[in-house]
Amino acid sequence: MEKICVVGSLNVDLTVTVPHFHQPGESMFGLSFNTYTGGKGGNQAVAAARLGAPVTMIGCLGADAYGSMYLDALKRENISQDGIVVTSAAPTGIAMIEVDPKGENRIVVYKGANDELTCDAITEKAGYIERSGVCLFQLENPLPAINHAMAIARQAGAKVILDPAPVPHTPIPQAMFMLCDCVTPNETELHILTGMPVDTIEQAAQAAMKLIQMGCPAVINKRGGQGSLLVTKEGYKLFPGFKVKAVDTTAAGDSFNAGLGVGLAMGLELGDAIRMANAVGALSTTAQGAQAAMPTMEQAMALLN
To answer: Which of 13, 163, 181, 254 does the annotation list as catalytic?
Structure first.
């Protein structure tokens, strides 16, 4: 299997389960509370490592207790920490997460140290990107640094997968789409990126074509339990999702991206990698927490078969 490099965010998730999502001014008692390591980058790194891939993480942590907690978590997952920058300029990023009884979530993120990932830091860690066959990116760090890292990956011949989340307030430069092999928006992100309706498969395919026209060879629209829609200039195909009992959908999209990256690192064709990604994403919703719920390759293969 080829090496995987994840360039992205590292947050600590403060997760509370609630009876229902509250209204403005409403107070309520939470049903449970847990602290997890998270962030889209960290989630994807852990998910890929749990599937057996050799993973290096590039990101920023604060020089604080949460940062130390995160480094310990990466070590437990056998993820290389050589790409981690520890900074005293900002605290470790935090995500405040509410989860309702249906497993749906609402999330507020304070980026903290994630904003300290600079182009210079990427340049210092470029060797880890260049030695990887697949590189995973998200948008919880400054866009110039992510763009710089993607360009290094493209120049080195790695497969580049961009999870365009969260969608920034300013438009994503077309040059970033042109550096990608795959862009993997969910329905909301695809709508925001294109301004087009995405309620039906046909609408989503038309919206994704707008990103194809901006230079991305393939768009994979994550559609939850419905599955994933692959769109290329040749056409579109829906890969059905797997039926599971969802407990917590936090990081299901991150798990999907990791499954996709691992599938490609294994040499699978894109369609087979998407089926693996669907299985990994579905399994990750069957337990509480983000990284705590990431499945193993054995579990993924059992669901696939």
So the answer is: 254
> Residue 297 belongs to what H/E stretch?
helix 297-304
Return the structure tokens found at 214: 């901006």
CA distance linking residue 118 with residue 87, whole number of Å: 12
Q: Which two tokens stand for residue 39?
A: 């962030």
Q: Which two tokens stand for residue 53?
A: 């891939």
Neighbours of 68 (CB within 10 A): 14
**Is it true that the peptide bond before 24 is cis, omega within 30 degrees of 0?**
no
Cα 296 to Cα 216: distance, rounded to the nearest angstrom: 30
| Active-site residue, 254 included | yes
10 Å CB burial of residue 226 (0-12, 13-18, 19+) is middle
Which residues face 160 on adjacent strands? Answer: 135
Name the one residue in this structure whose structure tokens are 């393939």: 218
The CA distances from residue 236 to 53, 75, 192, 228, in Å, are 29, 40, 20, 10
The pTM is what? Answer: 0.91
Burial class of residue 107 (count of CB atoms within 10 Å of its CB; 0-12, 13-18, 19+)? middle
Instruction: State how far the Cα of 185 lies from the Cα of 193, in Å rounded to an integer.
Output: 9
Q: Is 24 exposed, middle or buried (0-12, 13-18, 19+ CB in 10 A)?
A: exposed
Backbone angles phi, psi at 62, to 5 degrees: -80, 155
Per residue in 214-238, pLDDT (tens digit) is 999 999 999 988 999 999 999 999 9
> What dihedral angle (degrees, nearest 10) is formed by the CA atoms of 172, 174, 179, 185?
50
Q: Which amino acid is at 294?
A: M
For residues 287 and 248, the answer to whether their CB atoms sit within 8 Å is: yes
Give residue-wise pLDDT tens across range 46-67: 999 999 999 999 999 999 999 9
